[in-house]
Specification:
Elements (H helix, E strand, L loop, with lengths): L4 E5 L3 H12 L3 E5 L15 E2 L3 H7 L2 E4 L4 H8 L2 H4 L6 E4 L5 H13 L3 E7 L12 E5 L2 H6 L1 H6 L3 E6 L4 H30 L3 H11 L4 H13 L9 H17 L5 H15 L10 H6 L2
Parallel strand pairs: 1-2, 1-4, 2-3, 4-5, 5-6, 7-8
Antiparallel strand pairs: 6-7
Helix pairs in contact: 8-10, 8-11, 9-10, 11-12
The chain binds NADP nicotinamide-adenine-dinucleotide phosphate.
Length: about 290
């Protein structure tokens, strides 16, 4: 039966948004965060703030985890006092990770008698609870059914990709690969136009009309290059470095040739070494143009 209550472990930007959406949908919500300060925002609301992770796990059959990464999840959940409480529950991992990490987590969950769903959030915290959000899930249909109300509360489309726990993370990384492939194509094209005296506005207009799906990346990147102002509200190179490194891990784990992703990573590493890590991705243009 679908659970109408949920525990959210992790109240960073994303975990807080998930907890707020679950509250707004009328579910019974219990929250826990490692540092108590982030839970204070929930203290006067309808969510119950657990004072220990054990109390949080006891409160609901569905335990959503949204912390920094799988290592952080392991630190939080893999203690004897938490593990002994997990039997019969569904753990929904919404922290970003690789297919290998998802498989390893599913094996551990089974060893403590829990079901496991591994999700990839295709959006930002402000997208949670909106129609445009997509969350991909990998795991058994029966576990997905138990989390149906929780997944619906997060908004948009909850898409189960397959029974294998790593399937959502695999698709997520494949989609990220499209994004970075296109980004580097845009910046390399901009460097060619710049070197050959083609106005970047023409590059932007013609490119956007030919490839409307990716027009946003093209427009934003060219606007940054033209204004020579690379501050971004969307994403920094530091964040992209993490994502590229994750794709590299996925590629290597799958036994694939990693030259393409390592080439992208080498540009990102050079830009970060040059002190550009807090800027938007388009700053890589400076490095593609260098020679
Ligand atoms: N933000 C986005 O746009 C976005 C989009 C898609 C997916 N995601 C994924 O969502 C996850 C959370 O992202 P976020 O934006 O919420 O990050 P965030 O704001 O930086 O929050 C990180 C959270 O992880 C917790 N944490 C870190 N190490 C921990 C540990 N060892 N034990 C327990 N808790 C620990 C932090 O707790 P403390 O407060 O105690 O430090 C905090 O609650 C990440 O995996 C991220 O990739 C985020």
């Amino acid at each position: 039966m679908a659970s109408d209550s949920v525990t959210v472990v992790g109240l960073g930007l994303m975990g807080s948004a998930l907890a707020r959406a679950a509250v707004a949908a009328g579910l019974g919500v219990t929250v826990w965060n490692r540092s108590a300060s982030k839970a204070r925002a929930f203290a006067d609301g309808p969510a119950r703030v657990a004072s220990t992770i054990e109390e949080a796990v006891d409160a609901s059959d569905v335990v959503v985890v949204c912390v920094r990464d799988h290592d952080a999840t392991n630190e939080a959940l893999r203690t004897s006092t938490v593990e002994e409480r997990l039997a019969g529950k569904v753990i929904v991992q919404l922290s970003t990770g690789t297919p290998t990490e998802a498989r390893e987590a599913a094996t551990w969950a089974a060893s403590v008698g829990a079901e496991y769903l591994d999700g990839s959030i295709m959006g930002f915290p402000q997208d949670i609870g909106t129609d445009g959000l997509v969350i991909l899930y990998g795991g058994e249909q029966a576990s997905f059914e138990r989390c149906k109300l929780v997944a619906a509360a997060f908004g948009g489309t909850a898409m189960r990709i397959g029974s294998t726990p790593g399937s959502a993370a695999a698709l997520d990384n494949a989609l990220l690969s499209i994004y970075f492939g296109f980004l580097f194509g845009v910046l390399s094209g901009a460097a060619i136009c710049d070197a050959e005296g083609i106005p970047l506005d023409a590059f932007k207009d013609v490119g956007s009309s030919m490839m409307p799906i990716f027009g946003g990346i093209l427009d934003r990147s060219v606007d940054m290059i033209v204004s020579d102002a690379y501050e971004s509200e969307h994403s920094t190179l530091h964040t992209s470095w993490g994502a590229m490194s994750q794709i590299a891990a996925v590629v290597r784990d799958a036994g694939l040739d990693d030259r393409f992703v390592e080439c992208m990573r080498s540009y990102a590493a050079e830009a970060i070494d040059a002190g550009h890590g807090a800027l938007g991705n388009a700053v890589l243009f400076k490095h593609l143009r260098r020679r």
